[in-house]
Amino acid sequence: MMERWKGRVALVTGASVGIGAAVARALVQHGMKVVGCARNVDKIEKLAAECQSAGYSGTLIPYKCDLCNEEEILSMFSAIKTLHQGVDVCINNAGLAHNEPLLSGRTEGWRNMIDVNVLALAICTREAYQSMKERNVDDGHIININSMGGHRMVPSADEHFYCATKYAVTAMTEGLRQELREAKTHIRATSISPGIVETEFAFRHHNSDPERAAAVYESIKCLKAEDIASAVTYVLSAPAHVQIGDVQMRPVEQVS
């Protein structure tokens, strides 16, 4: 069922590493034109070359964009419209966490998490929908890479504000689904909520304590970024009348 997406345009935010890179690769493999954005596109350019060398039928187009800056997001969507007509699939993958507890955290860290995890996702969603609407695309898909932290609170002060932003993603995905129904479109909205995934995430989160970050991944057999990419292609492959609202996935050994 991924055949129908061949030649269509997907935007993947945070595509330079981890889940975003794995999703971008998988969609290119299935013949999509993928715009992969990040603040630093060096790794996306390398991934694009790898995809080309592998003979994948799609293409990966790197795009430099700071998702904390709305003007840059709007410019990106304008460029996609000019060069590729518009966005048919939007994968809101970019996200980050800072060790900023509720009782002692820095406002700057909280604001950065809201800017990337919540506001950028909302802006990209709005612009992707408008892109679909103006081209009469009625089968588009908006997929939010959420977290199990968006469904239950992790008993760790370092994670509480991050979890709050992911609860917002859970609420926004359901709100989006309802608004799309009210608009009488067949555009679908899905949230994919992974548990522990072995990527660079923990090392960025615990950047002052690499041993703690490594311990996160050594304690159990974690999910891989490719597992999340498989979930994305599964969701995109669902028949047009099937709405997959939320996919929760965690390692078998993960406790909560």
TrEMBL record:
Gene3D superfamilies, alphabetized: NAD(P)-binding Rossmann-like Domain
Function: Catalyzes the conversion of the 17-keto group of estrone, 4- and 5-androstenes and 5-alpha-androstanes into their 17-beta-hydroxyl metabolites and the conversion of the 3-keto group of 3-, 3,17- and 3,20- diketosteroids into their 3-hydroxyl metabolites. Exhibits reductive 3-beta-hydroxysteroid dehydrogenase activity toward 5-beta-androstanes, 5-beta-pregnanes, 4-pregnenes and bile acids. May also reduce endogenous and exogenous alpha-dicarbonyl compounds and xenobiotic alicyclic ketones.
Pathway it works in: Steroid biosynthesis; estrogen biosynthesis
Domain of life: Eukaryota
UniProt keyword Oxidoreductase, yes or no: yes
Family affiliation: Belongs to the short-chain dehydrogenases/reductases (SDR) family.
Catalytic activity: a 3beta-hydroxysteroid + NADP(+) = a 3-oxosteroid + NADPH + H(+); 17beta-estradiol + NAD(+) = estrone + NADH + H(+); 17beta-estradiol + NADP(+) = estrone + NADPH + H(+)
Family annotation (InterPro entries): NAD(P)-bd_dom_sf, SDR_fam
Protein name, as recorded: Dehydrogenase/reductase SDR family member 11
Keyword tags: Oxidoreductase
Gene Ontology molecular function: 3-beta-hydroxysteroid 3-dehydrogenase (NADP+) activity; estradiol 17-beta-dehydrogenase [NAD(P)+] activity
EC identifiers of the protein: 1.1.1.270, 1.1.1.62
